[in-house]
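>> received
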Amino acid sequence: MSENIAKSPMSLPVLPTTKLQSIPEDSVTEGTPVAETEPVADVPTPPITGQQHLDGKIANLRETTGAIDTFEYDEEDEVGSTRQASRLVNKLLNDVTHVHNVAFKLSNDISQELAAAEFPDVEQLENFADRLEIVLECVVEVPNHVRSTLKSEVLSRLPGRELFGYKLDLESRLTRSHVLQRDIERRILTVQAKVEYEQDAPYDEYAALERRENRKKEANGDTAVEEQDPYDTDPDPLSAYY
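>> returned
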């Protein structure tokens, strides 16, 4: 029987053949057109100003001080509570350093901007002074946070050696705050002196231009005063500024 199976070929089923027919063009339906969407232009994010950066650092410092004020020592978890206290004090030290660094850079940038300004008027000078006043307010706030931490329960829960080191760091931050405060106050007094000078100076146009020209010569190291031509009977002092 095995020989019959080997000799007889297997019959394969015959598949019916289908003839492809062309589809009339009139019967073809077009798909629904997709509405074109215009690309949305990326709106550039405005850069963060120096004052906004400083405000953010002050906000972080306030948040850390709040966490220190609400700290509660857990007698059942002395190790965990001590670590948490150490982390809070260390974070406050970093926050204070960030405020100092940003405030110093911002006050220095404002002073450089004032120095680069060409003949600022009273309104512009007052604007520079106001900006420095805002920076000063942030710096003056820092010692309050440091003193609050020195009296807090967080610091009292630290081991002796760690407590001593943190106290030294906090006191050094107080010293730096006072130095930075005096520096910004000096900058403000300098701007206010310029405001008073401009307010007390003559208001006529020629005197103002002459005063600015003299300041320009002093800045360039040229203190020589140009003499007027005696034969020029009708000089036009504003001709150089037209």
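>> Confidence is low (pLDDT under 50) at residues 224-242.
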